[in-house]
Design a protein that fits this description.
Blueprint: H1 2-39, H2 43-50
Length: 51
């Protein structure tokens, strides 16, 4: 029984790690999008979205 609990905890930790990586990728993608739009002259629109 304790081995099953250990396996479940490992699975949960792996899932959390994957979710954290996905969040990090999403944040980086969003920031890159903002920076690209600023470079394209859409600074005002980006600022409106951030505020």
């Amino acid at each position: 029984m304790s081995n099953q609990i250990f396996n479940n905890e490992n699975r949960n930790n792996k899932n959390k790690s994957i979710q954290n990586k996905e969040k990090s990728i999403h944040k980086k993608t969003k920031m890159n999008s903002f920076l690209q739009r600023i470079a394209n002259g859409e600074t005002g629109v980006v600022l409106e979205e951030l505020l």
